[in-house]
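To whoever is on call:

I kicked off a structure prediction for a single chain this morning and the downstream step that reads the tokens threw a length-mismatch warning. I double-checked the sequence; it's 240 residues and nothing unusual in it as far as I can see. Pasting both halves so you can look.
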Amino acid sequence: MSRHDNRQAHEIRPVTLEKGIAPHAQGSVLVSFGNTKVICAATIEESVPRWMKEQNKTGGWITAEYSMLPYSTLTRKQRDSSRGRVDGRGTEIQRLIGRSLRAVVDLEKLGQRTLWVDCDVLQADGGTRTAAITGASVAVELAGQWLVQQGKIKELPVKNRVAAVSVGIVNGEVLVDLDYIEDRDACVDMNVVMTDKLDFVELQGSGEENVFSPTQLEQMVAAARGGITRLLQIQKTATT
């Protein structure tokens, strides 16, 4: 059965990675998953968080910030700064992005510096967190290449690339890379984060007034693996 945008069940949306979108960042991309568009920019700070100094931690640190720009959705979304706080969803997503990146970067090789990764959603049509992780991985790799080129470190600190995709069950069928309409109608929704070795970094799955069987879980993981394999190919092309 074809989907409302004529994709097959296991087909991801058209994905592009435009490098150098933020000239003042050491690594940046505009990542597009169909109509979902996110700017991911990696900026290097030549110091580490105070807690690392207090605990005598060696190596560096990676931290992520995520936000949806006011005009990214159909109705204007109020800025976090005007509300005086980051919403719970934003906090959860930026922590997920940070965990995903730290899983694939050698922080010792990064040295005593912090890599700030800012993910700003320009347009939201489902899968903003998975697009952000996929784009942020490329931005971090580009920033690592910059550090090597500048002679600040000897070798690239990136151990593996990391990519993510959504998968869900809509009208009884497993679909990969859900857009907003499909995500809205899904009875089960899952986000899968994997490395280029196809090892899992994180699985986030839940039923929406529904449950899912072990067989359906296996089907969703298999569909996600196929989607992530394609994303990893696109990442490799963008960074070489």
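Update from on-call: the warning came from a stale cache, not from the record. Cleared it. Sanity check on the structure: The first strand starts at residue 15 and ends at 19.
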